[in-house]
Amino acid sequence: MNSTFNWNGKLNLLVPRALRSSHDEARSELARATMEGGPIAKAATRVAELCLPHFEHEEKSVFPVLALLPYLAARDLRPEMMEIMPLISDFGAQRDWLNDHHQLILAAIEDLLQAAQRQNSREFAEFAYNLRVHERMEEEVVFPTVILIGNYLQDTRAH
What we know:
Strand content: under 5%
Order of helices and strands: HHHHHHHH
Low-confidence stretches: 1-9
Number of domains: 1
Shape: elongated
Largest sheet: none
Helix content: over 70%
């Protein structure tokens, strides 16, 4: 099917820029923090080991789902939107793993925050704090939105 919603890459162009920017900024700051040296670098390396694959996973499985939001908000429903359902089903099946992984990430971020505070690095302490907020935003808003989109698409298909 040659639609806006198939896997030809067009859907990724519709991902909210704020989501992409958030991950890009975190990658950049993590790279800087790992080069800082000392406890900050050690803690940032652990955060990077956990976050970078996590970001990639979200960009492939969560971001395309969220790209549907403007269409759904405008009630512009299209049959080809159902092509996204396998991603949503996979996401739902991985929910426990994601929650556990988020707990590991949050613990690593807390270590980074503490290292930054010990080294009196306001810059990296702010980064760690902002990254913690980012992770909580995913848990409390982004992930439930993915499930909500799946439920909405299923409900509209049933009617």
